[in-house]
Design brief:
- By secondary structure, the chain is an alpha/beta fold.
- The chain is about 35% helix and about 20% strand.
- It is built from 22 helices and 30 strands.
- The chain has an eight-stranded parallel barrel with strand order 1-4-5-6-7-9-13-14, surrounded by five helices.
- The longest helix has 25 residues.
- Keywords: NADP, Oxidoreductase.
Length: about 725
């Protein structure tokens, strides 16, 4: 058996809705960046699933295709020794002159495939249509995508049109290149259910194979799905496909943590958004991992079933997890390890594919509306790809290279907290005893406690220290703690936080915020240990007319700001040291922050006074912590601005907190900042923005979260 190959692929969906087309290649910026091909080569990819999409090449007139982009990119892949796996339709319905329910879809795709093969006769691997079953469901059964039908007959027509389109495409391609291989992908999971829904689960588990079964010519009168499809008047089409099949040379399995499903008739156990039905029975449709114990067989089970059913080589053609960075690492490593294990059992798995190389946009809305961006192997938030920790992992997997310490811990899908709706007892998974921890300095502070909570939730092994065990003003204490715990990184969540008191005690503030912080950063750099330190918007003087970015010059107005600026300057050239500038913390878990002060004051029926003319960027602590952890895992260094996405005055921030928590906003008294009588000068305009990455969450979401937790806390207090 040949060596297991590493493939890759940028998310390349071009899907159509009533609002028009959404092109992931343009959304990620890959369309404009020639240098991305060098990144493919640096990852060590032997092949790339690459788009030569019908909608992009011939959007208006099939007789006048535009090959300019494809010519350049395919030549670049060839020059770098990377094999393209050509994709022609990816979750699409074709150009505007056709659609999945059009009788001209299949012959039209066949003609286009012939044009592509004539231009690139050297391409051997092809996926004419990605995930035809998923696309038919989303376009013609659920109505999410064009042509937005919601009936089973339309679903089967869309399915057969895609199968006929694949057959026509491969026929045209093989007239030019007889050795061309069909690599046919689809999402593959398994459905389980409560007893009253056993029939629906059985149907789902038959339907999941239908695309491959059709291409292999297996859907004859003996097939259990024949009568159902024939009942929609499609029997002649089934016979034509069975008489002239197009068996895949490789089965491409796409499996996500949401692929295995559980159907439950007991709707009251589950939230309304999970409720659905089949016209005969109502049921909740849940990710099986969230409800079944023991867990479903997952990707390993899907691959074994596919191998037993078809006996042709398999490839894992999408590996992606839209989650925090350490969970992305764990999923990728687990899939690679499963592939290696199954190959040892005799299952012919030829490749594993690092998917969504540049992340994806809008899958949280199923591509029906603008949505969130999920980073992939590279983060393209700024338009320039930044390698995440996934890049190093994927490069190293084929060579059994050491993995990031956080990648060796169990993923959420392996931990007890995966069960949102527990059905049975479950065993506790412990952290591996030899995993290097994350060391968090600052056991009692807002940030230290927030990082400890986040690490516990994300399954990151960690140690939290107080001043009694790690004193930043004592070099021997720092060295002893680092040598004892041998962490992979250190978070310095300590610090002098009393801005006004620092005016009368600047030396003491400097010792903690600068001297001590510099000492631990230097000790970490000397040991090649990552280090995260925190700075502030108070390093700026507020004289600018726009939000400050990382490269702007500092000019602090007060003692606290000077201590942070001194720390930044000393850490600037230290390898592996990440400095996060942030501002205006608020959190439901800490009683000493602005938002809590607003609520407490208004709860007493008193007015709350806040500066109307001082602008800040409020930052929700849980979002800050998650963003900082991802960057630390990625090995990011230098100065980063990690703050919310909106610049507002302190008074407007207070009004939004008040409104969200149900208080009268007229109780917020906006005044000039210089009338507050604070000893430390503040910059009037201290808004932060980033030229290096995304904001640390949105202000609206943070306030909503804060208000929800505040209501829950008030309810608990009332009940007590």
């Amino acid at each position: 058996m040949a060596a297991l190959e590493l493939w890759g692929g940028p998310e390349c969906t071009v899907n159509r809705t009533h609002d028009g087309y959404a092109d992931q290649i343009r959304l990620s910026g890959h369309h404009e960046r020639d240098g991305d091909l060098d990144l493919f080569a640096e990852l060590g990819l032997s092949a790339v699933r690459y788009p030569i999409l019908w909608e992009r090449v011939a959007p208006g007139d099939p007789a006048t295709p535009d090959w300019s982009w494809s010519d350049q990119r395919l030549r670049g892949l060839h020059d770098r020794g990377i094999r393209p796996i050509a994709g022609l339709v990816h979750h699409g319905s074709g150009p505007a002159y056709t659609n999945l329910l059009d009788n001209g879809f299949a012959p039209g795709l066949g003609r286009f495939a012939g044009q592509v093969a004539e231009r690139y006769p050297w391409i051997d691997d092809w996926t004419p249509i990605n995930e035809p079953l998923t696309t038919a469901r989303f376009s013609a059964l659920y109505g999410h995508w064009y042509p937005h039908h919601r009936d089973e007959r339309s679903f089967w027509r869309a399915m057969l049109n895609q199968i006929d389109g694949t057959r026509a495409a491969m026929c045209a391609i093989r007239r030019i290149n007889p050795a061309a291989r069909l690599i046919q992908t689809d999402d593959l999971g398994r459905t389980q259910a409560t007893t009253p829904l056993a029939e629906q689960a059985a149907f789902d588990n038959l339907r999941r194979w239908i695309g491959w079964d059709l291409l292999f010519g297996r859907v004859t009168r003996a097939h259990p799905m024949w009568d159902r499809i024939d009942g929609f008047g499609l029997g002649d089409r089934l016979r034509a496909i069975a008489d002239d099949p197009c068996p895949p040379d490789v089965i491409g399995v796409n499996h996500y943590l949401t692929s295995d499903r559980f159907l439950d008739h007991r709707l009251h156990h589950y939230p309304p958004h999970t409720h659905g039905g089949n016209g005969r029975a109502a049921y909740a449709d849940i990710e099986a991992l969230r409800v079944l114990d023991p867990a479903p067989p997952g990707l390993g089970g899907a691959l074994r079933e596919a191998w037993q059913r078809y006996g042709v080589p398999l490839a894992i053609t999408e590996v992606h997890n839209g989650c925090t960075r350490e969970e992305q690492l764990r999923w990728a490593a687990e899939i690679w390890d499963q592939a290696v294990m199954l190959r040892a059992e005799g299952v012919d798995i030829i490749a594993v594919t690092a998917w969504a190389l540049f992340g994806s946009h809008g899958w949280n809305t199923l591509l029906t509306a603008p949505g969130v961006y999920e980073a992939g192997v590279y983060d393209v938030t700024t338009g320039t790809p930044r390698a995440t920790a996934l890049a190093a992992l994927w490069r190293g997997l084929p060579h059994d290279a050491p993995r990031h310490p956080v990648a060796t811990a169990p993923g959420w899908w392996q931990r007890p907290d995966r069960l949102l709706y527990p059905q049975a007892a479950h065993a506790t998974l412990s952290q591996p005893g030899n995993v290097a921890p994350l060391l968090i300095c600052g056991a009692t502070g807002t940030l230290g406690q927030a990082f400890a909570r986040a690490c516990a939730a994300r399954g990151i092994a960690h140690v939290v220290t107080g001043r009694d065990t790690l004193d930043l003003e004592n070099g021997h204490s720092i060295a002893a703690a680092l040598d004892l715990h041998r962490p992979w990184a250190v978070i310095n969540a300590t610090g002098w936080v009393r801005v006004d008191e620092a005016e009368a005690a600047e030396a003491a503030c400097h010792r903690i915020n600068a001297t001590g912080a510099i000492a631990i950063a230097q000790a970490c750099a000397a040991r090649s240990i990552g280090c995260l330190a925190f700075s502030s918007d108070l390093v700026f003087d507020g004289q600018g007319s726009r939000a400050y970015v990382e490269t702007d010059a500092v000019a602090p107005l007060n003692a606290y700001g000077r201590s942070k600026a001194a720390m930044e300057a000393a850490c600037a050239d230290l390898p592996g040291v990440l400095v996060a500038r942030t501002a205006a913390f608020f959190s439901p878990h800490d009683t000493h922050n602005f938002a809590v002060a607003v609520v407490d004051t208004l709860d007493r029926g008193q007015c709350f006074i806040a500066a109307e003319d001082w602008v800040v960027t409020p930052t929700f602590v849980p979002a800050l912590v998650d963003a900082a952890l991802d960057l630390l895992i990625d090995g990011a260094d230098g100065i980063w601005h990690l703050a919310g996405d909106e610049a507002v005055s302190w008074a407007d921030f207070a009004r939004r907190i008040a409104a969200a928590c149900g208080y009268d906003t007229r109780l917020i008294d906006g005044v000039r900042g210089d009338t507050l009588g604070w000893p430390a000068a503040r910059p009037a305009q201290a808004a932060l923005a980033s030229a290096r990455g995304a904001a640390a969450g949105t202000l609206s979401a943070g306030i909503e979260h804060f208000a929800r937790d505040n209501r829950a806390r008030a309810g608990r207090a009332k009940a007590a």
